[in-house]
Specification:
The structure is a homodimer of 165-residue chains. By secondary structure, chain A is mainly α. Chain A has 8 helices and 2 strands; from the N terminus they run ααααββαααα. Chain A binds a DNA duplex (30 and 30 nucleotides) through helix 3 and helix 4.
DNA sequence: AATGTGACTTGCATTCTGCAAGTCACATTT
DNA sequence: AAATGTGACTTGCAGAATGCAAGTCACATT
């Protein structure tokens, strides 16, 4: 029923304000899935690799919508279905998501192939431009594969990335 | 006694792994304070503008140390005092902190002056280089002021920025 | 010796999470 | 058109995390 206003802002610091909305285990994961995996329905998030509980998912979608980071709109062809989309404010989080991805790949044992991520780090601006373009075009094809259950980081890649403009 | 291992990794996704350590209201704030405000003691964090509870602070410092993001070392001149420092892994979070700052300044009502932050966004690489140099030199002088209780940023954003395709 | 400080712990009430199990409006099948 | 299926949520409840106040305890200062 709420999540709406968030009246108790503790500090004017921009980092602090960001964390009031994004500072939890799930919000940025949802945003990442919308951004790079082109998720848009409740079901897709629920069945994703991270196994988020449905009550938490509903709550986070609601809060993200209240924060103006995503919007929810009923599907035209199936009225049961709700399509979630990133707003411009939401897609502007792409740099944050990309940086987190780069950081973890460099410093932790992840399922993402090093070489691919380093290439993205090197072409940062181009990658961000592409993410934004895909968002504007509502491209339904995932930009990156899952990386969720990959054994890890041993240069395994396999042409997952679609190249070119 | 706790906070240490974090054994239940839920996913190999780098963003997910990052959020296992950083996905809460406080961790990145502590890191930000070390990065741009040159904080290094418990007392400084405790008395900072965000008013973190001391048990939470102790817990987060412990977890960040366990994650290799910071190190704690006893002060030479006063054995009661513990000095916390960012590791290289920690200072590598600078891009994330900077992006969060930029994002919130553009999209939320913050205490940070727009012009300053936009200038930092434009000179991203230089700013990051400077942050890193300051870290290496252990510069004790804050890089930025607090922004915590500033009224500021009226007239919000309004299409100041727009990077196109 | 007495008092002060810095860095934490402890207790406890409040809030948030995570699972399982509904509910309910549509959609599809028979 | 009745029965069954689906998608998007709610509800209940136990257990974990948070927030505040009040210690503790090893140094340091007076």
């Amino acid at each position: 029923m709420k999540g709406a206003s968030k009246s108790k802002q503790r500090s004017g610091c921009p980092v602090s304000i960001s964390l009031e909305t994004l500072g939890d285990r799930w919000s940025l994961l949802i945003i990442r899935d919308m951004m790079v995996r082109a998720f848009r329905t409740f079901k897709q998030f629920r069945d994703s690799d991270e196994k988020i509980a449905t009550n938490i998912l509903a709550d986070r979608l609601q809060k993200l919508a209240a924060a103006g980071i995503i919007v929810a709109e009923a599907d035209e062809t199936d009225r049961r279905r709700v399509n979630y989309r990133l707003t411009e404010k939401g897609i502007d989080l792409a740099p944050v998501v990309l940086d987190l991805m780069i950081w973890a790949t460099r410093h932790e044992q992840t399922g993402a192939p090093n070489a691919v991520v380093e290439k993205m780090a090197k072409n940062r601006e181009k990658v961000l431009a592409k993410v934004r373009r895909r968002w504007r075009d509502r491209d339904p094809i995932p930009f990156l594969p899952s990386f969720a259950n990959v054994g890890g980081n041993r240069g395994s890649v396999r042409g997952q990335i679609r190249r070119g403009t």
